[in-house]
């Protein structure tokens, strides 16, 4: 696997930063024992998972009034990760949390996050073209105070200055598309208008095949991301279709379908900056098309992921307990495992769905947040681009908003793609 092209995609998509890479090995938090770990999952068990996964989200929202963005990771220590992520609210994580709240019937709560995203788009300190940044400062976003719509940062005492991460300040296509999914799901005129502005910017990323990755770095001249991602084009295809932009949706969807590898019955990751097919194995690129386009023959991507990302290694699908981000299978990626739970339920494979859901439940921490990874630092086989050619991108065993949101969506049998 060539780490660089998907590395940039992942780094901007999920926003993990150089602090994540430099932090020392941390002990994994003790999981919460749950009644969910039962042989057969009943409807009450799924309802309990949805309730408990959303509980810390609701609690975080109760700490502020009005429009807001939620912090993405718990930061309970004094490591570099905690310093850099102390106020980070990733756009993707928040859009996903809004969709989970909406699926649970909590429209007003979802609209608070959607309005927070609309305000940061409208009040950006530099951009007026509809893009969203990958991350913002967590907390309330004030309509009357544009400075509340800022990228996150931290004070570096050694340098004596305020710092911001270039990944967090950049704009990847996927998170912008997820904001559109939330705005269009709510459908209010101000949200539809915000979605239209965001889609205008996304259309500017058009490449001969699909749409490019976006930008990375600070204004006024961030670097372009020239690779083309299968997963992000799936996001864009759905987002454009929601807005009735049939030509743009077709261009993105056509690229996704072109990445299907019939002999292996799975999707390639996308195109490298040089235009070559990146054959690496990506979990979301293989699960999301089957969620977004059911019945179109892409379900084989799930079996590919189960066989190559499943833990324990070599076990038959019925005996798996979780999914790794990549195929080295050094630990469980809880967000991705929850994604698989949702697709398994959609395909009627309830027994395995319940088995994986029990693993997600066991990694719910005492504070209610589900850990991003089952081990202190989960390798991905990808790099951030900070150190070219080095596979230095890892997930922490910290509570993660996106893991809770996907767990809730899986329990509610609700897809973010509709």
Written description of the protein model:
With 418 residues, the protein is of the alpha+beta class. It has a single domain, classed as Glycosyltransferase (Alpha/alpha barrel), CATH 1.50.10.20. It is 45% helix and 11% strand. It contains 16 helices and 17 strands. The protein has helices at 4-14, 18-22, 43-62, 80-84, 91-103, 107-122, 166-169, 173-186, 189-203, 230-242, 246-258, 283-292, 300-309, 334-346, 350-362, 401-412; strands at 68-69, 88-90, 135-137, 139-140, 154-156, 161-163, 171-172, 212-216, 223-229, 260-261, 266-267, 270-271, 277-278, 310-311, 322-323, 377-379, 394-396. The protein has a five-stranded antiparallel beta sheet. It has a two-stranded antiparallel sheet with strand order 1-4. Strands 2-3 form a two-stranded antiparallel ribbon. The longest helix is centred in the N-terminal third of the chain and has 20 residues, at 43-62.
According to CATH, the fold-level topology is: Glycosyltransferase
Going by CATH, the architecture would be Alpha/alpha barrel
Kindly provide the name of the CATH class.
Answer: Mainly Alpha
Low-confidence stretches: 1-38
Rounded radius of gyration (Å) = 19 Å
Major sheet summary line: 5 strands, antiparallel
How many extended strands?
A: 17
Strand order of the largest sheet: 7-8-9-12-13
Percentage of β-strand residues: 5-15%
Protein name: Cellulase
Keywords: Signal
Signal peptide: 1-34
